[in-house]
Fold:
Amino acid sequence: MPTRHLRVPFAVIGGGLGGTAAAVTAARLGLPVVLTEATDWLGGQLTSQGVPPDEHEWIDRQRISPSYSELRDRIRDHYRREYPLTERARTTVALNPGAGFVSRLCAEPRVAHLAVREMTSPLEASGLLTVLTEHEPIEVHREGDRITGVLLRDLRTGDEVLIEAELVADATELGDLLELGDVAHVVGAEGVGDTGELHAPAEARPDDQQAVTWCAALELRPGESHVIARPAGYDRWRTTVPSFWPGPQLSWEDVDPITLERRSRPLFAGRPSEAIDGDDLDLWHYRRILARRMMHEDWAGHDVTLVNWPQVDYWDRPLIGVTPSAQRLAMAEARELTLSFVHWIQTEAPRTDGGEGYPELALRGDVLGTTDGLAKAVYVRESRRIKARFTVTEGHIGREMRGDGAGSALFDDSVGIGFYRIDLHPSTGGRTYVDIDCFPFQIPLGALLPVDTENLLAANKNIGTTHITNGAYRLHPVEWSIGEAAGALAAFCATERVRPAQVYEDPARREEYRGLLSGRLGIALAWSDEIRTGGSRSEAVVTAR
Structure:
């Protein structure tokens, strides 16, 4: 029997960016919410998975989502308040603490988590938001087309908690409620006959799932040695050559995601001692999350970078549609690959300045909230996906399928906007990159609603996209916008005493809900025509309509 029983209007299972946005939005609109998370950090890919945000080029110039901008502002403000920044860094509006070039906001996951909890804290104090960390779902109770309860296990004590709610959001990283609740869903790649997509495989491939990555943080400590123990499976990763890769993953060699041409990118373009002002094209600067040059000269710290590179993409075994033991094995091997790569860097990697190995690189688990230098959780790019009332395909957003200048499809039920290339990493199906251009796009409400479960909302990477379009809808700001729309919908349904399907199906109600999004919440629901049709080749103008 459960040791605790909670009844709430809205339960959000999964505390990543989508889940956090859903819970914060609903609670700010006055709806009591329970938010659960399997790790002890909220924020998902930004925090517990350790990935600086992958964002579009206009993120600092247009407030597409005021609450997402608030999160980013809180991260920057923490550095301005607490770190000995140079005057130039402190007064830079678009402060980038790590000066990494993958994002305009490369920061420590630890700081991002603090910013997330700043947003939840007043809501928790008010009683509108209850947060249960280190709780994982183990059962879903269902009657007909309704979920009546979610049973969770406290990972610290083993106690069980039953949550009953009028509306439930699945914001888990792998779409766990879809399987537990027997909700119709898709795993892996659909075939071209299912979606008509230009880049879909000939036949459906459930085993074709994007690589996951167990991220790590490294600090540059000149003159010191921090070599870790040689992992047991080191020789496997040092010698195995995948059919679609130029050599073993323990190498500086990889392939260009777009052209698929072989390339070599060193850790440092010059001497490590020059990394503070080094060449931005090397791996060190790619996802650097703390830059020594941003601080006063007497600061005792060093550069820290986040290891989320092709060399640590794990594509040997899928995480979804397998037995629990097979999933645990895949997780363990992903960790071992990352540790093997770190050991290789420290001991055998060719140095740009001559010799082998960079023993001066030290794992920094504290910036990830761990003691082993690796992130709390594996970085997940692809989830189970609901069979939705509407599914976004490549034909809706892909530049090649739609024609240059045509723009993305327009959705009259848009609940938010986003933009990122269709970026699929090598997969467990033995496929290399699929990285193709797309237009700035909208997020349709129909993609958040399952066809067979009336009180479940998708609030993460589990929305109605395909294997292909997931590659564009899976990134940080889009996931936040998905969750934000789900949280606002839950609050709207509670206030108006309607079901999500009624909002979707009734044009008047749908427009009233969209008015809440664009009005009170200030969320942009459409790109300007110039941007929607031009994409990254134009300047951005965002409209809230």
Summary: Residues 175 and 384 are 5 Å apart (CA to CA). The chain has 16 helices and 23 strands.
